[in-house]
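Lecture 7, part 2: worked example. A protein chain together with adenosine-5'-diphosphate.
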Amino acid sequence: MFQKILIANRGEIALRVLRACKELGIQTVVVHSTADADAMHVRLADESVCIGPPPSRDSYLNIHQIVAACEITGADAVHPGYGFLSENAKFADILAAHNITFIGPTGDHIRIMGDKIEAKRTAKRLGIPVVPGSDGAVTEEKEAKRIAAEIGYPVIIKASAGGGGRGMKVARSEADLEVALQTARSEAGAAFGDDAVYIEKFLQKPRHIEVQVFGDGFGRGVHFGERDCSLQRRHQKVWEEANSPALNAEERSRIGGICAKAIADLGYSGAGTIEFLYENGEFYFIEMNTRLQVEHPVTEAITGIDLVHEQIRVASGGGLSVKQEDIKFNGHAIECRINAEDPRTFTPSPGTITHFHTPGGLGIRVDSGVYSGYKIPPYYDSLIGKLIVHGRNRVECMMRLRRALDEFVVDGIKTTLPLFRDLVGNADIANGDYDIHWLEKYLAKEE
Ligand code: ADP
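Predicted complex, written out as structure tokens:
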């Protein structure tokens, strides 16, 4: 087991990882920018190292500073959290070269999954169902037209290097295709320094369903069921739940089995998420994330397994603490992402939190790094906390969620809490009847 883990992240996820380390009796080091000197995880860590000024590129993305912090403090492993360097293959390689363990998969696996064309090709080879579309990158308009005609309109043009919901263009007819192809390529080139794009069938009313997988580092793979993250705004997840209201046990075990086998065949090590669009009973692979996800607590709530403990165990060579048959799905869980944003316009609302009171009681978990008097810096993403609620079934979970949202107090800034208070009373949400476009349509109606 590791002696000392350096946490290369901030906010709620840094605190989340810190808690797991403390439980396992592992010493903790956190790195932080000058803007985060007052953060809760910095206060609670055994050691902290300031690695630079507020802009992420000078601090949380500064590989040299982070490696130097490992050397100074004698950390033998790094947990990257999500975002920042968590899917940076070069970072994983550099750590390996310094004999520091990256708590995550190998640089090569990150590289394959970070290139969406290569990821899709690999998924297909491993027997994972994919969205119909081009076999690789498309540059010529003629070829694009041929493929689009073959799979049928509408189609979506996506950047191979894309991420965070950026670099996608929909073409509804052949007339749209030329402009869509050109814009997607130039936007991809500007945003990612790589203008490779590919074409996929645009699914009209899919749900976003993702499977949590783990490779144990010894050629075995397991799945921890799925999460339904269909409630999105601008391709960003807002509300996540497990199990998906749309799947039955048989579908769960079928898609889970396919994913677990793929992970084993790949020889993957650590946590991963295989993301699908789901429509008319079919799954279509869209991408794999080679890290812990923001929404991992809903899986923890229904399985009772600490996924960060498992990540640390696997990275240290200790394998998983569970086999597939030990992983049982118990009840229902929902996560609400609470952002420091105006609940109508979604413009960021940084500032000082004058009062912060979190709900409690059976089945309630709040993962947050903020506190009363905390000043939210304007430099980073606006997530200030996650409310995760568990119940014996979805109805109980929703009742508890409504009560918890009523108890939650965040004063001094605007937050997205009012949005969730509206959603929890909505009939479609109560019925679990929504697709990936539902939330945007709902928000457009509310305006
Ligand atoms: P990113 O890595 O940028 O998040 P994804 O490939 O995961 O990109 O897609 C993000 C979101 O875009 C999906 O959750 C879905 O809402 C939408 N999307 C992606 N591909 C398709 C498709 N083929 N049809 C319809 N919607 C899609």
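The chain is about 35% helix and 25% strand. The chain has a mean pLDDT of 96. Keep this in mind for problem set question 3.
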